[in-house]
Each structure stands twice: as structure tokens, then as C-alpha cells.
Amino acid sequence: MEQQGKVHPITRDIEGTPQESMFDIKTQTLPPLESDDVIVKCLYISIDPSQISRMKHKSSSHTSAAATSKIMPGMLRENCGYGKDDIVYGLLNWAEYTIVKNGNTLRKLDPMEDFHYLTISEFLVNSISTPIRYSVGTSGLTAYGGFFKVCKPKKGEKVFVSAAAGSVGNLVGQYAKLFGCYVVGCAGTKQKVELLKEKLGFDDAFNYKEKTDLNLTLQSYFPNGIDIYFDNVGGEMLEAVVANMNPFGRVAACGAISQYTNSRKQATPNMIDIIYKRIRIQGFLSLDFYTNDFKDFMQMTIDYVRKGKLCVLEDVSHGIENIPAAFVGLFHGHNVGKKVVQIAQE
Ligand SMILES: NC(=O)c1ccc[n+]([C@@H]2O[C@H](COP(=O)([O-])OP(=O)(O)OC[C@H]3O[C@@H](n4cnc5c(N)ncnc54)[C@H](OP(=O)(O)O)[C@@H]3O)[C@@H](O)[C@H]2O)c1
Q1: Is the full-model pTM beyond 0.85?
Q2: Is the C-beta atom of 330 inside 6 A of ligand 1?
Q3: What average pLDDT does range 68-73 have in this prediction?
Q4: Residues paired with residue 204 on neighbouring β-strands, in sequence order
Q5: Which residue of 232, 265, 341 sits with most ligand 1 atoms within 8 Å of its CB, as the best mutation to test the pocket?
Q6: Quick one: which atom of ligand 1 is closest to the CA of 315?
Q7: What sequence ranges are listed for the domain Enoyl reductase (ER) (predicted)?
Q8: I need a labelling partner for 227 at 20 to 30 A (CA). Which of 42, 140, 153, 250 fits?
Q9: How far is 109 from 132, CA to CA, in rounded Å?
């Protein structure tokens, strides 16, 4: 039987800020399966700023890590390593169905291993509705690795986080507070600033869009200087932070979202400051921590979540039609916490 499904193919290279009008939606008929192909039905799609880099070149793929996806019943080849109703995640298209060659870019989710005793049905229906592995998982590993392994914090140190109400930033701030640091975050709306201070336990927060002089702003929030900066945005904020850092300060260079849509926003921090204050700026990728740190990260995170000490912030849209809006919204600060789009119920 022919399988049809909706898909958002990429139709042009994106330069500057993405617009919803740049994305089409089409109905596709899936081609006949070849030997060892696996057909995956998408349940959730993760929406991430870095996906824009895959849309900037003609040769790039238009894939997105799907939070959970389901192997289509009755459409499996034998011995492909997956069974009917297995829940998997991997790099898939922005589509209801994706054919994955050999299934080798997929990973089967194991409720025991991946969710620490949350069952599949539990994670699909309970308050931690999308898999904790994804909502807290990849962003959490980024936050955990960048903060604990790259910045090597000491209790009482002063930490600044940009895009602090976003997927990675909110977790950095929460980890840092739970660890015993003084934490200030910035975000782009009054509501986000209130959320950081009132719900997530940040010591202070400000709306960077209301500030005309970032240098003076940071001086007022950190009269004794910044020890750690978790950088999600790059640009002029990084320059202002370096000017306000203490000797031996550390910068975790996680992302540079201000540059993704405007290449002229490249930060040029004062190198004399970096040299004399012995500031360390280190880039990293979440996968750097996957082998050695994932287990400790998950144990600590699940423990905090279960004890109600760590808040899981998800921002869920529904329907494949809403993927472009969700994606474009990241670059306008429309999301609060981890952005995902639910494509199907089961
Ligand atoms: N190194 C890694 O392995 C890794 C892994 C995951 C993510 N990242 C990076 O980490 C950063 C955060 O990712 P995320 O998934 O947590 O995204 P996110 O924070 O959930 O969403 C992006 C947020 O960035 C803010 N923003 C958008 N445009 C901005 C601009 N021009 N200047 C300042 N802020 C802007 C918006 O919030 P406001 O309301 O505050 O403006 C928006 O909500 C991104 O740069 C991403 O590429 C890196």
C-alpha cells in the first residue's frame, strides 16, 4: 500500500532571518522501500537554532533531530534491527514519515536506560510530556557539559547566562543555582525576566532589549565582576561580558545566535582584556560529553526533576504545518524553554 505524508522540503537557501514564507508544505507519496529501509512515523520534532546552518548551503540536508519517532507498524523489513512500535530518535526530515536507509542513523529508546524508570507511556502522557531525554536531554547535556566541564565552577562564583529563558540557558541557570553560584540571566521579554527570577530561582535577570549600554548594565548587575559566562548569543553581549570579567574568568562558547542571521554581528572581544585577565574562552559541542558524562548528567538531572528542584520548561506546538512558525520564532524569542512540535499522538 502506498504511504502518503506531509513534508516541508527546503526550497531555497536562507540568508538573514528566516521567514515562514520560505517554507512550503507538500504531500509526498513515499517511494517503495528498498531492502533494509526503515519507515519512521514522527511523533515530535525538536526545533533548534542550529538547524539554520543546514539551510544555508545548497548541499545541506534539511533534517532535524526528532524527539521521538515511531517505526511504522507493518512496514518493516525483517532483520533491520527494529521492531513494530519501537520508539526511536534520530535525524529525520521535517515530515510525517521519513524513510531511513538501513535505520543506521536511528537510536532505539530504552525506557529503563533512557528515562530512568519512566515508561514510554508515562513519558508520552505525564507532565514531563515529551521524553525527558530530549526536553532535558540534549539541551541538558549541553548545559551540564558547558557549565560543569568547560567552566569548572566553584561555589559562590558569579555566573552570567544569555538567552537564559531558552532551552539550554534555563538549565544552565538552574544547574548553577543548585550548585551554589550567584546567577544572573538575560532574556528578551519582561515575562521571561519574571520567569527567571520567580520560577527558576535566578538571583537576578534583565531584558537585554531594553538596555542601550550593555557594558554599564553588566557593571550594575555584577559590581564585583563576572567569573563565568555561558554564551548562547555571541555578538556585542560577549564583548560587554569580557570587559566585565574577573581574572581567570571562563566563557563557555555554546552558541552565537545573534550571528546566525546576521554575519556582521561577529564578536570582537578586547584581546588585551583576555590576555591580562587570563580569560579562557572555550567552544564545545554537546556530543563532546556524550561518552564520559552522559550517565552522571542524567542521574543528577533526573534526581533534581523528581525532587522538584529542577523545572522542565517545554514549549510545545502542534501539527506539522506549524514547524516553520516554531523555527522562525526562535530567532524572535517566541519560545520559552525547549521548543518542540508534536506531529502525531502515537
Ligand atoms: N554547542 C552545542 O552543542 C549546542 C547545543 C545546543 C544549542 N547550542 C546553541 O545554544 C544557543 C541556545 O540554543 P537553544 O536550543 O537553547 O535555543 P533557545 O535559547 O531555546 O532559543 C533561542 C533564543 O535565543 C534568543 N535570541 C534569538 N535571537 C537572538 C539575538 N539576535 N540576540 C540575542 N538573543 C537571541 C531568543 O530569546 P530572547 O527572548 O532571550 O531573545 C530565543 O528564544 C544557540 O546559539 C544554539 O545554537 C549549542
Answers
A1: yes
A2: yes
A3: 66
A4: 184
A5: 232
A6: 20
A7: 16-341
A8: 140
A9: 11
The strand order across the sheet containing 158-161 reads 204-207, 182-187, 158-161, 226-231, 245-253, 280-283
Q: Hey, whose CA ends up nearest to atom 13 of ligand 1?
A: 168
Mean pLDDT lowest among 128-132, 137-141, 310-314, 335-339:
128-132
Q: Angle at the Cα of 6 (from 124 to 36), degrees rounded to 5?
A: 75
Torsion, CA 267, CA 268, CA 270, CA 275, rounded to 10: 90
Cβ of 161 below 6 Å from ligand 1: no
Q: What is the CA radius of gyration of the chain?
A: 21
Query: Cβ(167) to ligand 1 under 6 A?
Result: yes
Could you give the CA distance from residue 323 to residue 131 in angstroms, rounded to a whole number? 19
Exposed, middle or buried by CB within 10 Å (0-12, 13-18, 19+), for 42? buried
In this structure, which residue's CA is closest to atom 24 in ligand 1?
163
